[in-house]
Design a protein that fits this description.
The chain is 12% helix and 36% strand. By secondary structure, it is mainly beta. It has a single domain, classed as Jelly Rolls (Sandwich). The strands form 3 sheets. A 6-stranded antiparallel beta sheet has the order 3-4-5-11-6-9, with no helix packed on it. The longest helix has 10 residues. It is globular and about 60 Å long. This is Cupin domain-containing protein.
Amino acid sequence: MSLSAIHRVVTGHDQDGNAYAVFNGDLPHVEEIKAIPGTVFHEVWSTEGTPARVDNGADPTIGPLVLPPPASGTRIRFVDIPPDSQEFLDHGAERMAAAFSQIGDVAASTVKTDSPHPLMHRTESVDYGVVIEGEITLVLDKEEVLLKPGSVVVQRGTNHAWANRTGKTSRMMFVLIDGTYDPKIARQLEDKK
């Protein structure tokens, strides 16, 4: 099932300092993950550095797909998540290197033979994930949480996956903020390897 296109409006300033819509239409970068058919990334915008530069610069979504936000920056995207198939649950872990390679972060995949889901991963970022459509299960190392439209997850660099155990595609919106692990957490994660 295909969900509706994302409509994006990006504002800017004209030569007289007046506000106007620089971009108004469909997203220019929408990409399906080949190793996970039906998983579609809808790239909305990203910023580099903090504070973010307020300018009339080029569209930062043009170019290769990249999972994490830029250094000291942010990224906003929508992700369509198809239902988990039994074939994916049985053999999905074998395809994760290809999937995470396509999204520019092979190191993010943490899947092992005893992982609770083939999409287990982590990024050194704080991510706000909002369920827009459908139901999603947040899979963590030791528990799961069912999410419905309007649910918000504040994901603080933890190992996780998004499981769709329904019969239709779900959509989430994510805002990713570059982060740095607290030294104690960094040591704990290193010890787990």
